[in-house]
Amino acid sequence: MMTLLSTRKPRRQVNIYTLYAALASTAASRPIYPSPPSRMMPVNKMAFIPTTDNFHKLGRHTSKRCLSTLHAGVESEAEIKDKTKKWIDNVVIGLNMCPFAEKSRSQQKIFTTVVRSDDVEEILSVVLYESILREDDTGTTMVVCPELSPNNFIEFYNVVAMAEDMLHAQDLDGIIQIAPFHPLFQFEGSGEDGIDNLTNRAPYPIFHILREEEVSAAVKKLDGDSSKVWDRNVSLLENMEDVYGRSTTEKIMSGEKVEGLRDLLRRITEEEKK
């Protein structure tokens, strides 16, 4: 967990020159779609680092797992926002996967921006713009990019790395962090069918922009141990897989409701309190 900066800089102006300067510095230091970096993810697990064999395996599973995403191009922006909202309501908040998302929703501070493009520079400019907006304003933003490598997690994660480098260049470290979600998200050390991968899978590729201050406040309520969220979420997924099987668990994690799920969640909550 990064340390929150103790001082605040004056609120910066969001303008086209800021965006161009940031994109230029990123492009100068990193080519489009470089080799995937070996960096830590927000949940203290490393993202999938591909080998040639794994790359081909990931491609073979595209037709099985990404049918809804393959048709993102024919969905309207309203439909994409509705599906994203359903996923947030039923999974992120409904399953309590994120400990502070409910507060953001109750304050109407969950913002969603849809980028209908696969142009990396355009997407990075939106991510930076939304990050600057969040710098001094509470809440969280979902930048949803349906066309950004929806069937190739490796390419998507390369762009996430570029976005992180861009935020670092703009002195946003310790203020803003990005949590990536993708239909084929895979952690390093987990097989492609690892149940833990479902914690970061979503209907579309998403850059979840978080304020470090709010993340730190949520972690403090967990006695400073962010791993409690991870352990609880993986345990929940394992319970769901035992009860419903893998296919139904994946449907639940995509935002679908399943009969008896509330009873399972209630039982698990009661066990956690013991």
Structure overview:
- This protein has one domain (16-33, 49-273).
- With 274 residues, the chain is an alpha+beta fold.
- The chain has 12 helices and 4 strands.
- Mean pLDDT is 76; it is low at 1-11 and 24-70.
- It is globular, with a radius of gyration of 18 Å.
- Helix content is 49%, strand content 8%.
- The two termini are 28 Å apart.
- Strands 1-2-4-3 form a 4-stranded mixed beta sheet, sandwiched between helices.
- Helix 10 packs across helix 11 (246-253).
Strand order of the largest sheet: 1-2-4-3
Overall spatial form: globular
Total number of domains? 1
Low-confidence stretches: 1-11, 24-70
Mean pLDDT: 76
Q: In whole angstroms, how far apart are the ends?
A: 28 Å
Number of helices in the DSSP assignment: 12
The overall strand count is 4
Secondary-structure element pattern, one letter each: HHHHHHEHEHEEHHHH
Q: Describe the main β-sheet briefly.
A: 4 strands, mixed
Strand residue percentage: 5-15%
